[in-house]
Specification:
- The chain is α+β, with helices and mostly antiparallel strands.
- It has helices at 15-23, 41-46, 65-75, 83-108, 112-140, 151-167, 176-186, 191-197, and strands at residues 3-8, 29-33, 54-57, 60-63.
- A four-stranded mixed sheet has the order 2-1-3-4, covered by helices on one side.
- The termini are far apart.
Length: 203
């Protein structure tokens, strides 16, 4: 079954999907677009909502990064069967994306003065607010968001990595359980080999 992922040549919200596909030992076409040349009108107009990522499989396509990640998680036994546990993982991912919304707001801000204010808020307030809670939740669940490896852990690591890329620092350095989870994901079979061969991302 042919698989194809369309995303930018950077990590971002597409990298957890790449990690999941490599973890699941799937052959897929990794179609990458350069941020500097985006938007490519012909591509953007062909997308359901004009945004990436887009995942294709067996003649069908799926947009929205979380929907794609959750779908792949189901394929690779990374989604619990209990519906309450599923909901807890969904909540964890939405909490991660609440933090991501802060980072994305800063990234998209064009006013220089406002951008600096947003950066200070993230570095001085939002990181500790969110990551102290991520640390707490991971400690309470054997180092994972759901008590064992799940799709939510892949999403979380991807968001941390792209945030580090944006800010040029390791925002997780004060949170050892978060650091441990990142290391676990990066050394998983398939993921480890992918990371070893990819070119370093830059902004």
């Amino acid at each position: 079954m042919a698989r194809k992922l369309h995303y930018f040549n950077v990590n971002g919200v597409g990298e957890p999907i790449r990690y999941l596909l490599h973890y699941g030992k799937q052959n897929f076409e990794d179609v990458r677009y350069e941020l500097a040349s985006w938007p490519i009108k012909s591509v953007k107009d062909s997308l359901p909502y004009g945004q990436l990522p887009l995942y294709e499989e067996g003649g069908r396509s799926l947009n929205q990064s979380l929907a794609i990640a959750r779908y792949l998680g189901q394929q690779f036994n990374l989604v619990p069967t209990d519906i309450w546990e599923q909901a807890e993982l969904d909540a964890a991912v939405y909490n991660v994306y609440d933090f991501w919304a802060k980072v994305l707001g800063w990234f998209k801000e064009n006013d220089v003065a406002r951008k600096e204010i947003l950066k200070k808020e993230i570095l001085n307030e939002h990181i500790d607010f969110f990551f102290s809670r991520f640390e707490r939740d991971l400690k309470a669940n054997k180092g994972y968001f759901g008590g064992k490896l799940s799709w939510a852990d892949f999403v979380f690591v991807g968001i941390v990595e792209v945030s580090n890329l944006f800010f040029g620092m390791e925002i997780e350095k004060k949170y050892p359980t978060v650091q441990a989870l990142i290391q676990k994901i990066r050394t998983l079979p398939g993921v480890k080999e992918y990371i070893a061969t990819r070119k370093p991302y830059t902004m």
